[in-house]
Amino acid sequence: MNYLRILRREHFFRVLFGSWVGRLPTAMAAVAIPLALRDSGADFVFIGLVAGCFAISSAIAGPVIGRVVDRVGQPKVLVPTALLSAAGYVTIAAAPTAHTAVVVGAVLAGALTPPLEPCLRVLWPSIVDEDELDNAYAVDSAAQEMVFVAGPLVVTLCVAVFAPITALWAQATLTLVGVLVFATAKPSLRWRPEQVGERHWLGPLRKLGLALLLLAPAGIGFAIGTLNVLVVSYAERNPLPGGAPVLLTLNSFASLVGVLIYGAITWTWEPRTRILLFACGLVVGYGMLVLVPGPLAMAGLMLLTGFFLAPMLAAVFGLIGDLAPRGTVTEAFAWLVTLFAAGNSFGAAAVGPLLQRDELHTAAANASYGSVACLVLVILGYRLMKPTPAAVQAA
Length: 395
What we know:
Blueprint: H1 2-7, H2 12-39, H3 44-72, H4 75-94, H5 99-111, H6 116-127, H7 133-161, H8 165-183, H9 186-190, H10 208-237, H11 243-264, H12 271-288, H13 295-307, H14 309-323, H15 329-356, H16 360-381
């Protein structure tokens, strides 16, 4: 089986594990930082400010750091950013009542988040054969799903056994350990930036097809951000075992199953066609949320909306690698992370006022708008998303 074969590839598990551990702090941040600050007596206004500073600084700095990696290599960027990001978490943990220190720590931890996610995807072509790339991206996408399941669980464990503030120390430790494992692996040490001529100031965004491909998943991020808040309100109105967390777990489980099936298939369709197919599936799933059905049917919709998500992202990963101009691949993957996260944040922010006014059906429709936007962008850019020969990719 292909999954077993690539898992046995030299360095495959090490870089995957290092990246996974190093990404846990980002998945923990949305829960760990508010809990630690609240436990220290902070009000919700300040907590919201800090959470916003972390998210915005991370989104803005991600592509910039990715561009630096494309210039100087991976370890020279990963190690300093890990040290500074860990210092940010430590600053918050050491002085949770000092507002200025907390804001500085949040900006430092967010802006200097080690770019493990884009760095990992740049390495896959050097670790697996070309015909195994779909499998590698599928495992990568599945691991990403598990990051956002495991992150909150680590915070829960820290709170249950110790205190909320220990989650911040755990974030600092996991950041350093993950980067140490990843950046000392041979594929990361051997990877060299591509030497190109004059670089365009827009980097990978100068290619319209790639820009549309990077922007399309932001629509799905918007839908997911809406869903994350929507299910909390839904569970309050429709009591069900386990409440909102169970619905989100079903969504993540279906996504995991979907991407494992995706990676096991030998595809004859082009990546852009697969992305179009999965985008259509997401429109159907999120569109049906407008019905706001009973708990059993809602559980089915969680499975449907999740099933197409990770496969679409896996196909997007592969196509980004094919479309990105030489010397911009890391930055291109960093833009994907930033735009997806931005869409997620906007979706969560947009749905809140609707739920406050008890407009549940309108709030559910919000998610469908994001999925439709994704599909429209894929359709608009379909012809431009066909990879060109390497010679044409020169910067």
